[in-house]
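Worked example 2:
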Amino acid sequence: MSDLELSVTICSWNTSEDLRACLQSLEEAQDEARFEVIVIDNNSEDGSPDMVQQSFPWVRLFRMSTNLGFTGGHNFAIEKRAAGPVFLLNSDATVHPGAIRSMLDYVEANPKAGIVGPKVLNPDNTLQLSCRRFPNPLAALFRNTFVGKLFPKNRFTREYLMLDWTHDGPREVDWVSGCAFLAREEVIRDVGVLDPEYFMFCEDVDWCFRTWKGGYKVIYLPDAVVTHAIGRSTDKAPNRMIGRFHRSMLRFYQKNMLPEVFLPLRPLALTGAAFALGVRASLFIAQNKLDKIKRNRQK
């Protein structure tokens, strides 16, 4: 490795203006640490790679001929990185002053801090719930479903989203959002990189799960702040993304939760989980189609 302190990896797919803001925020943070920025362009069609090349020539740009997805893109960048630690950052996110330095200082002072996630804000400066407990079937039943709308203050959603806490100090958490988090070099060495079986979605949950199993901690660090505009890429193909999300959830359950189920009951548990997630995905897609019909009628 070089004398760089950090490699920042960004995957971009048709988010040219968001990516510009992201890179501008990193450019303004260059006096905080010695870091490089790697952009993996997943075959964008909006001129993103040309913008990077022309406006940010100091960035290491890789133009992909196909879309590698979030996981494939970041894993490619991790392999190409020049520093030990890596900071995964969404193209629709911007770092606040001091964020990079705060995370680097924290991992240096805390050798067991394997993954560190910053406080994440929405564009209107409200808190984005970026650290959570590991998912469970009851949380999935209530989260963003009609059941949850009937019982908006149910404890399963509140526990999953960690709404019982003010998010105002460092804390060990189950997992942090992949929109922005730093992984120390030892985690990459001992735990591995993102699971390539996830194209996108749940790869962050899975990596944090494996980080805990590997003997490291996952930390939420509100001293570091990032602003994130959710879904700028995924909103371009919402129904396809819904399908991908639920397939990833099933992958996470099958890989990490199912082995804890009593062996004779595993086939039944897997079938039940697949059915429930399939129904959930179908309901979301149906709602999207109804919303689209309503919007067209109002035009």
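The chain has two domains: 6-129+167-231, 237-294. The longest strand covers residues 217-228.
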